Amino acid sequence: MKLVMNEKDVHKIIELAKKSPIEVCGFLLGRKVGNTLTVEEARETRNRLNSPVEFEIDPLEIAEVLDEAEEKGLEIVGIFHSHLKCPPMPSGKDLKGMNLWRNVWLIVTPSGEFRAWTIENGELKELEVEIR
Fold first, then answer.
1. What transmembrane ranges does the database entry give (predicted)?
2. Cα(110)–Cα(114) distance, rounded to whole angstroms?
């Protein structure tokens, strides 16, 4: 599987991470065609934990984003968040979340690193990210 994003959205997420003292988070809205997930919009959400080391999105905000995506004919293809002081690899808490939200997890750092992950058959897999 491959994640395709436009440069503007990747830059937007990294800029959010650079400017924030807490982990930023949100959803990647787009479409899945075959083995390709194409992101059409990066939708920021509020980190209700207000924490530099973990994030959580309010269930009401999740419902709002699901409605927005449906109105636009899109689906949630991924979740993004930042790691402020560690590499863009899933933490233990991320892995638990990935088992609940079975889509792509894009993790960025304020320095501009980013990597995409998914869990397939119980195994952590890194996805190719193509920037357009």
1. none
2. 9
